[in-house]
Amino acid sequence: MAAGLAEFVVIANRLPVDRYIAHDGAVTWRTSPGGLVTALEPVMRRKGGAWIGWHGAPDEKLKPFEHDGLRLVPVPLSAQEVEEYYEGFSNGTLWPLYHDVIAPPEFHREWWDSYVDVNHRFAACAARVAKRGATVWVQDYQLQLVPSLLRGLRPDLRIGFFLHIPFPPRELFTQLPWRRQILEGLLGADLVGFQLPGAAQNFVRLVRERVGHKTHRDLIYLPEGRTVVARAFPISIDVNAFEQLARSENVTARCKEIRESLGNPKHVLLSIDRLDYTKGLRQRLRAFGELIRDGSIDVDDAVFVQVATPSRERVDQYRILRDDIDRLVGRLNGDVGRIGQQPITYLHASYPREEMAALYRAADVMVVTPLRDGMNLVAKEYVACRYDDAGALVLSEFAGAAAELRQAYRVNPYDINGMKAALMEAMGAEPREQARRMKTMRKTVIENDIDHWATAFLDELNFERPSHDKKMRPARGRS
Ligand code: G6P
Predict the structure, then answer these.
(1) CATH for 6-235+455-461?
(2) In angstroms, what CA-CA distances link 168 with 94, 95, 105, 163, 200?
(3) Which of 22, 43, 120, 282 is deepest in the core (most CB within 10 A)?
(4) Mutate to test the pocket of ligand 1, among 10, 18, 36, 52 (most ligand atoms within 8 A of CB)
């Protein structure tokens, strides 16, 4: 076998780093945004292998390269593909459809055509890079056709797929004009992983009803004798790495500095999200603003730090959201602030991990209130950084993480009064009560860290399942 072929391959829309060209023309690489990269990077670091993905800029063909010990294989996207496959079908159709249609999904045939083309390119790239019999792990909603395309090119491979975002109930999924192609695309995998059991069940049911394959619990029997497993594997983070960072001298000093520059208030509340309409920024800022306006909190006592990482800035819904949040923060600070006392510190920026760890340590209350979220790793990062067992987590019941972090102050983000009550409860909790909750949550994240996730998925993927009875008749399917 030729040198350089990989026994383990990850395919994701993005590489773990984005190519960034500074004003002076210097090329640098920056960590890509989002939870997928946070979770997978340590897995690749430990396992080795190749990572196939887009490097974040249009119209550039780059050769495979090594970066910081990782073997990266860039897939090019033209400016038109960025518009139609990435901003269009991935983030203007699938993203809102899979997140409860919080924003209306758009269906355009040119977007779909581009999605198909780009999925072909990723599959072809993996087919070139993977060694005979290799394990290939396809990631997320941008690449749902890759499993079956890749199987067509390379039937020798073991193919896994993991969806990082929610998988919708059939009432929503069936709006998609290309629903059957997506289901069949995923069925190219031997194992299809989801964040929560409910998502896996949605998928199995759709396959039974729309494609017509026989199913039993989490197993799907394909007519050619292959069995596909659909199961939940809740994703996590490198807990130890976050804790070590949080304990470091730099972070400890920076945490103190942050609190001082905020005026050492009694309560520091913190949210960190990509600036996305699924994250519930509006609702939480309104809840906090009302608490100050109605006198439940004194403006001298509390500061809310909202970090919003720029994201998908050319997609309409994201532009609208940015303007809305700018206006809302301006209005709230204008209404309830005083000279030298702005209740909301709003930062539209992305920060290195070290700064995030310092912010986590500086925050008395971490507010994670998405309207819908596959998992939400920020919640787990906060818990990982609170080795002092202090701090309180306010968590939306619509984040995947709520299934594990049961000792958080749980909220329905659509219920502003409920959210106000939870924020008050979290701010007023005795240190003993906070420690009791935090200790249990820490135990959960420490036991279920990213290695546990990767091992569980890959062990299941490599489990040999004998071919089932080929003569089994499929149930009748509709498109
Ligand atoms: C979420 C998705 C990832 C995506 C990330 C950042 O975490 O599940 O697939 O990479 O958001 O979004 P972006 O569009 O910038 O890649």
Answers:
(1) 3.40.50.2000
(2) 10, 10, 13, 11, 10
(3) 43
(4) 36
